[in-house]
Amino acid sequence: MPQWMTCTWHCAKGPAQDHGPALEEFMEWCDTSCLELNVTKVMVVVISSRQQESRLTSAPTLIHGEPVKVLQQYKYLGTVFDDRLRFDTNTEDILKKCQQLQYFMKKVNSFGVNRSILTTFYNSFTESTTCTLIPS
Q1: Where is the Alkylated DNA repair protein AlkB homologue 8 N-terminal domain positioned along the sequence (predicted)?
Q2: In principle, which of 26, 30, 98, 102 could form an S-S bond with 35, CB 3.0–4.6 Å?
Q3: Residue 83: Cβ-neighbour burial (10 angstroms; 0-12, 13-18, 19+)
Q4: SS3 103
Q5: Hey, which residues does 79 pair with through a beta bridge?
Q6: Looking at residue 55, what is its pLDDT?
Q7: Facing residues of 81 across strands?
Q8: pLDDT higher at 52 or 25
Q9: In terms of Cα–Cα distance, which of 134, 113, 115 is closest to 123?
Q10: CA-based radius of gyration for the chain
Q11: First vs last C-alpha separation in the chain
Q12: How far is CA 110 from CA 4, 17, 100, 105, 119, in A?
């Protein structure tokens, strides 16, 4: 996954491939700002809620004549989302982490570790993992 990402938002009433104007505007801004895009590292997630979509099969996304990799899901700032803005994978990842931490706590507890240490571990790791999606 790339280390940074620039997003362009475009609401199109046409097909999902019709994000060309926003992409052209972004490429023009990069050119005028003396920024060069490394097309081999550029990836695109086209977010759409349309039920009957052709999945970008008719026209690939091109930057300076080179095709851009289209992703089905993306991890940004630790949150995984897909092209329908569903967070199923993210929820499953958090659940797996919590199950691993719970198993670890059971193992440590079986060795007779002090409760205050277990409470500190829970507050530091397990609670922070479970609360990542709760808005403040």
Answers
A1: 88-128
A2: 30
A3: buried
A4: helix
A5: 76
A6: 52
A7: 74
A8: 25
A9: 115
A10: 21
A11: 27
A12: 43, 57, 15, 9, 15
How many angstroms separate the CA atoms of 87 and 27, rounded?
29
Measure the CA–CA gap between 1 and 123, rounded to whole angstroms.
30
Amino acid letter at 77?
L
45-82 tens-digit pLDDT: 877 766 555 454 456 777 888 888 888 888 888 888 88
Tokens of 26: 């972004």
Tokens of 119: 């409470």
In which residue are the tokens 């803005």 written? Answer: 85
14-18 contacts, C-beta under 8 A, 24 or more apart: 15/53, 15/54, 15/58, 16/46, 16/48, 16/50, 16/53, 16/54, 16/55, 16/56, 17/54, 17/56, 17/58, 17/59, 17/61
pLDDT for residue 116: 92
